[in-house]
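Quick log. Single chain, no ligands specified.
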Amino acid sequence: MRKEEEKAISLETTDYSPQNLSSDQVLDYLQHNPDFLSENAQTIAKMAPPTRWSGDGVIDLQRFLLDRQKEDLNELRLAAQEVIETSRGNMSSQTRTHSAVLAMLSANDFEHFLRIVNDDIPLLLDIDVATIGFEPGDHAPQALTSANIRPYQPGDIDEVLDPESDVVLLKEVAESAAVFGSAASLVRSAALMRLRPGHTVPHGMMAFGARSPGFFHPRQGVELITFLARVTERCIHRWLED
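-> predicted structure:
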């Protein structure tokens, strides 16, 4: 039998488990598998290449370029992971919002609708409290005096919501009793949404509160929460004005 064949048999029977590998075995394997690194390029990024020169005043440019490439790869991985996590978060928020909308649309009457907002919406959106409140109106429906509705004074809503804005996200909330009532002690961040008036329904506001500071913050997108507010608004008008 030729020496090459004997060597091949020896390689096939060698135990290459990480616990038993020696430097000679690794070298031996790479010498008999010259295409390994080209076929597994990702391995190179985890290796520590040797310096080409040593001595004071000498810069190893190759090592510098390899280190910078590894840093760039790590940054790309982190950026990709952030995009993936953001996409997952957006998909989760969208799914939760759709579930909340379907729950509100399933209400049997206005009181049932208010119970869904107060009791079910916090669970569906993973928040701690949700409320609806209205300012007084000249011909406001009697149903707006429900115990499940927060009473506001004229102008209260414009004090917390800019007249040109329909949504405001508050990273930190100091005083929220007027908005969240007995649940105010739980709230550390909030989302406030304007409910536009109808023929008889006055100005209103929906508010979401979370016990975690920063759960809501101004850098968040408001598309989904604005959509939810518009659906809420139309549900109220349907129950009280149709």
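The helical segments are 3-13, 23-32, 36-39, 61-105, 110-125, 156-160, 177-180, 223-241.
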